[in-house]
Each structure stands twice: as C-alpha cells, then as structure tokens.
Specification:
- This protein has 470 residues and is mainly beta.
- The chain is built from six helices and 22 strands.
- The relative contact order is 0.08.
- Belongs to the SAM50/omp85 family.
C-alpha cells in the first residue's frame, strides 16, 4: 500500500504524584484506553471525517475528489487502509504524481469524534517538462525512442507528448494530446499528429504516412472499446530497383480516411506469459465513406485461451482471422492487406512470406486465418526459480494458417474452401524470454510443413522478437 503511517493512539505518560493520580488508578486508565484502541483496530466502526491532500501545485482539487471519494465510505480501520491503498493507486495512475504517501491519524479539533479518523495523501507532483530515452521492441524490429512530455498541462491530468523514433526499419515522429475524463480514467480522448516511414523488404516496399487521428477509449460492462477516425496521406515507393511490376504499379500517393472500432475482453493474468484467462479482440475498419481514395471494409479478430496444467505448465490456444472487402469497384491497396508468416505468426516461414506474390515480392491477401497451440513449461530442473529463471519458459508449438484472395462473387462455401486449401503448418520447440510485461523473445527450432511454391521457409533455428505472438 506504499507507506502508510498509523500514528500512535497511546495516551500521554502520566506520573502519579505530579498529576494527583494514584499509580493503580493510572494503570486502570491505561488499560481502559488500551481496550478502546484495540476495539477500534479490530473492526469496530470508525468514521473518516477528513481526507486531505498535501503537496498540490498546479493540479486542480476537483479532479482528485473523484479518485479519493471512496475513502469516506470506509467502516473500519482495515477498510480505511484498503480503500486508501486503492485511492493511492488511482492517483498514481493519473500519471501526474511522482510519489504518493498515505498517513492515517485520529481526528483532532473541536468536531473530532471518538472514533474519527483523518486520512492525508502526501503527493509530489511531476515536473512540468520531462524527457525520456528508451528502446522499443516491435514485431521483429527494434527502435530508439526520444521523448518529451508535458504532464498535467491544464491541471486535470492532460498530457502533451512528442516522440521521435529511429528504428531498424522505420523512422517516425508524432505529437499527441491525451485527456482523461475526471473520475473515469479509462474513458479518455486522444489526438495525434504524426509522420511514419516504414520499410517492408518482403514486399520491396517503402511507405511514408503523414496523418492525423482522434480516438475515444471507454469501458462498457466487461469490455473495452476504441472508436477512431484517421486521415492519412500515404506515399508508397519501391525499396529496391528489383521491385516487381506489381509493386511498382501501386507506387504513388493515396489518401485514406477511415473509421474503426475495436472491442476487447481480456481476463488473462499476464499479456506475455499468461497462465489463465482468455483474450478476445474484434476490429472493424471502414474506409472511403468520409473521403479519400481508399474504399474498403476490413474485419479481423484475435482469440486466445489459456489453461494451467500440472507442474506449472500452461496450455495455450490461439486463433486469428480476417477479411477485407473492397468497396465501389476499387482494388485493395498493398498497404491495407493482411500478411502472414514469420516468428510471430506461423513459425518456420519467412517474415510475411506466405500467400500471393509476384517476382519474389509478397503482395498480401484479402483473407486469412491462423491458429496456434502451445505447451509452456518451466526450464528443466528450474534454475533460478523465483528469480531470473522465471523470465524464461520452454514451449512446444503447432502453428497453421493460410492467406489468399477471395472472389466475392462466389458464395461463403467457396470462400471457406479456398481458405482450407494449401494450408501451411509447422511444429517445433524453443525457449521464450519475457521482457518486462510488454514484449518477448523467442529462439525456436522449427519444422515447416505444407510449403507451397513461392513460400520462403526457415527450416531450423529461428529467432523472433515482438509484442504480439500467435
């Protein structure tokens, strides 16, 4: 609960002759006081009379009232401590305080009740301007990130952030503004202005995006939702002179204006090494109805279920899928299609090297599915147990999937048949390393099967790094 101070409720020391009190009477008084204190500590009703916040500078007090209001509803000392801990976590979650400490004391003053308590939160605000330097790991790529942040810009947990990222495959910078709803941090609004340059060697493609987006995040029952609008000017070019004609044909400038909605339910105990729980994420994107020359409807989903077995082992099953439907007779863009293959999806195949291709360049597909089954176990003989060794897991896996284009003039049965043809699959084993709770590294020995003409394979040892794995 952080640092919680419960100041002494012992009576002041008294000495008989000076106070005119007999020593035996003094002992009786102390015992009575001790019994009263013990009763308060042990579930007797208490009343939280005052909740104070010390150390505020630019933060508006009305914002914090929502976060600490539950403390007033505590009924006993244990409840006060629990609700104070929850309030402290809420205050830290706002991202505007460097430190928050809690002091619980008996009430003082003329209005003090015998069972009254005062709770004080001692806070230290963050500086008006902070900088950061760190590295990030994405799906098989890494980058260096420099950032400047202005927390609590207007005093109600707003945040203005500028980031510059230089990576192995892309360089980007962006300016974002974040505004939470007072009393409901999960309900927030974000505005973004950005430029992103990415290189995609599997397609001999280079893409530069300049855009603006706004998104609203909010919880609804047990689900989390994101509504987003994005307007982006995309510049596509060839990464190499050897790029295929199909890639050259798609080079040039396009405008995309899209509305999207994402719904997720996540009951996992960990995003990287879950031992129990499930994840369901569904995303819909509609482009073209708010402008731009890209016009399509795109749907995709992700499902993961985890079950704990004996000897601290975990069985995990995952299923991904999606389809893209061009609208208005316009063909889909290489920048909007799905890609499959590599150490983060169907292992044993090259990065995004499954599906339609032209002269060695992979063009992506308008429909795909992928499934995975994993058995995670601790390292043999459990070295470094309850310490460094818990960052590692061994896993045995079976992956399968397919990526293709569909003829939407055909019926659903023909579509399913197409997706069931030419299934790529692989199996193997490896070691997984958890990096905090945001990313993981994998070193696997893979045996690819169902290889089709044009697929690139990685038969044997394959290394992967990323934040999202099948």
């Amino acid at each position: 609960m952080g640092t919680v101070h419960a100041r002494s409720m012992d009576p002041l020391p008294m000495h008989g002759r000076d106070m005119g009190v007999h020593p035996d009477d003094m002992i009786e008084v102390q015992e009575a006081e001790q019994e009263t204190k013990q009763e308060v500590l042990e579930n007797k009703d208490v009343v939280v009379q005052h909740v104070n916040i010390e150390g505020l500078g630019r933060t508006k007090e009305d914002l914090l009232g929502y976060e600490i209001s539950e403390v007033f509803h505590a009924k006993n000392l244990i409840d006060v401590m629990k609700k104070s801990h929850i309030a402290r976590q809420k205050l830290l979650r706002l991202g505007i305080f460097k430190e928050v400490e809690v002091v619980i004391d008996t009430s003082d003053g003329a209005d003090a009740l015998p069972n009254g308590l005062d709770v004080t939160f001692e806070v230290t605000e963050m500086k008006r301007l902070t900088g950061s330097y760190n590295t990030m790991v994405g799906n098989n790529e890494g980058s260096m990130v420099l950032g400047v942040k202005l927390p609590n810009v207007f005093g109600r947990a707003e945040k203005l952030t500028f980031q510059f990222s230089y990576g192995t495959k892309e360089t980007s910078y962006g300016l974002s503004f974040f505004k939470p709803q007072p009393g409901n941090f999960e309900r927030n609004l974000a505005l973004n202005l950005y430029k992103v340059t990415g290189q995609f060697p599997w397609s001999s493609l280079k893409e530069t995006d300049r855009g603006v987006s706004t998104e609203l995040n909010f919880p609804l029952w047990r689900t989390n939702h994101t509504l987003k609008w994005e307007g982006v000017w995309r510049e596509l070019g060839c990464l190499a002179r050897s790029a295929s004609f199909a890639v050259r044909e798609e080079s040039g400038h396009t405008l995309k204006s899209a509305l999207s909605h994402t719904m997720s339910i996540d009951t996992r105990n960990s995003a990287i090494f879950p031992k129990k729980g499930a994840l369901l994420r569904i995303n819909q994107e509609l482009a073209g109805y708010t402008g731009g020359d890209a016009s399509f409807l795109k749907e995709d989903f992700e499902l993961q279920v985890n079950r704990r077995l004996v000897w601290d082992s975990v069985l995990s099953a995952s299923l991904w899928g999606g389809c893209l439907l061009p609208i208005g007779g316009r063909p889909s863009s290489i920048a909007d299609r799905f890609y499959l293959g590599g150490p983060t999806s169907v292992r044993g195949f090259g990065m995004y090297s499954i599906g339609p291709q032209s002269e060695g360049d992979y063009l992506g597909g308008e429909a795909y599915w992928a499934g995975g089954l994993h058995l995670y176990t601790p390292l043999p003989f459990r070295p470094g147990r309850a310490g460094f060794g818990d960052l590692f897991r061994t896993h045995f896996f079976l992956n399968a999937g397919n990526l293709c284009n569909l003829n939407y003039g055909e019926g659903p049965r023909a579509h399913l048949q197409r997706l069931a043809e030419c299934i790529r699959w692989s199996y193997g084993a490896g070691i997984v390393l958890r990096l905090a709770n945001i990313a993981r590294l994998e070193l696997n020995y893979c045996i690819p099967m169902g290889v089709q003409s044009g697929d690139r394979i990685c038969d044997g040892v394959q290394f992967g790094a990323g934040i999202r794995f099948l």
